[in-house]
Amino acid sequence: MKNIEISPVSRIEGHAKITVQVDDAGNVADAHFHVMEIRGFEKFLEGAAVEEAPRITPRICGICQTAHHLASAKATDMVFGLEIPETAQKLRELMLLGQYIHSHSLHFYFLGAPDLVMGPESDPAMRNVVGILKSNPDLAMMAIKTRKIGQAITGVVGGKPISPVTAIPGGQSRGITAEQQAELLSEAKNAINLIEQGVEVAKPLFAQYSEAIEALGPVESHFGALTNGGSIEFYDGPAKIIDKSGNQVYEFAAADYLDYIEEKVQPWSYLKFPYLKQIGFPEGNYRVGPLARLNVADSIPTEKASALYGEYKDQYGIAQNALLYHYARLIELMYAAERAVQLLEDDSITGTDLRQQLSEPLLTKEEAEASGETKRGVGMIEATRGILIHDYETDAGGFIKRANLIVSTGQNNLSMDIGVRETAKQMIHGEEVSEGLKNKLEMIVRAYDPCLSCATHAIDGSSPLQVDIYDSEGQLLKKHLL
Question: Which residues pair with 381 in a beta bridge?
């Protein structure tokens, strides 16, 4: 038995590897996607005042910070029983759209596109952002400008482009001025033009690599996404689960997610494996993110994104192929820019009714402990990578006793693992594996745009971390389990 290791998986957020076990006959016996990092934000939150959570959780990740900020804020709204005003909800949605524009343009053009623009088997020294800059500088500049617009929206609405701070229990701590509205509207309209140019470059690539789309990462699964009467939805709404044929299986509110989602641990990864509880593991595997959202949605309510969506659905229907996450991401990028324009053309976005205040003062920590009462808040939104859930249980004074985070990448974990394994079995025959073939296995993982900093948590504060100590000759001296 020979072990082939691809480490690290490149052009993703976080640290992971792929291992392939080849038997003596040269056939793949097994293969896995391994996540080796671990972070403890669920434990970090314990004991904190829940109103601080929207400021703590954005530090989980420098890319997904806005999604964590808003999911956390929605959870705190529920803890305190607050209904946010209309203008505050529009500002929060606009802030989230800023992240979509920033994150989707970053991932497609600089992390995913090199495989398509340069080719899966091209020189790895050029199969990256440097290659994009050299081979197609205009495309690279469009990507940079688009991402910058997304960051500008987040910075104005969220107070900071990285780790925003304005979403608070009951609404927003500040609004935007008419001048800021006009400036962001101009930027959002510019983003639409930039995205159109990028789409024209990208669409032919999906036809060019149709065989790779069919071959890489084969898996059939359920899909989950928020819904708004059948329309695509990022900020609010129940979660809808469909089967591989597109039939609805479940629909549930944020507070009820534990009745439908359960997590399992496997020995080859620190990243947990969520699945549909009532179906069981692994049959209850489901995927989230751009591919899932376009499978679940019946329509996209903006002109240009709707046209792209129609072409996509006519060609692929209920899409299962992992590489189509890239195509779906481009369509969502267009929708995010168009929806931002819609919000910014609405003058109520500059309204001053921004927050519902608490009707009664909070208990002190001592009073809360004496009462023994608990409260619960669950916030659920669509992060760029899929459904994100923040679940907090607090005492009567609002101090967090327990926190649970169900993160998008975890919900795609089983599909990434299956996709790597099945592709390896189809493509690897013999011990020699080319650089291009190794990259094709990485392409499966990259298609999901995994964010491993977001997704790795310790459920009870413990972690089976092992430190291996080697001498200068590479000999293993000691294994230490933390």
Answer: 388
pTM: 0.92
Kindly list the domain boundaries of the chain, sorted by start residue: 2-455
What is the share, in percent, of the chain residues with pLDDT greater than 90? 78
Q: Which residues pair with 240 in a beta bridge?
A: 225, 251
Greatest Cα-to-Cα distance within the chain, rounded to the nearest angstrom: 72
Confirm or deny that 64 is annotated as ligand binding.
yes
Residues 386, 59: Cα–Cα separation, whole Å = 19
Q: Which residues contact 19 (CB under 8 A, 6 or more apart)?
A: 3, 4, 5, 6, 31, 32, 34, 268
**Cα–Cα distance for residue pair 284/385, rounded to 1 Å:** 19
Q: Is 97 annotated as a binding residue?
A: no
Among residues 171, 174, 180, which one has the least CA distance to residue 70? 171
pLDDT for 1: 77
Residues near 369 by Cβ (< 8 Å), separated by ≥ 6? 395, 397
Q: Is 61 annotated as a binding residue?
A: yes
Residue 454 labelled as part of a binding site: yes
Rounded distance between C-alpha atoms, residue 313 and residue 294, angstroms: 8
Produce one character per residue of 119-140: b if its CB has 16 or more CB atoms within 10 Å, e if not. bbebeeeebbbebbeeebeebb
d(CA 180, CA 387): 30
Q: Is residue 121 annotated as involved in ligand binding?
A: no
> CATH class for domain 2-455?
mainly alpha
Q: What is the distance between the alpha carbons of residues 272 and 64, in angstroms, rounded to a whole number?
A: 19
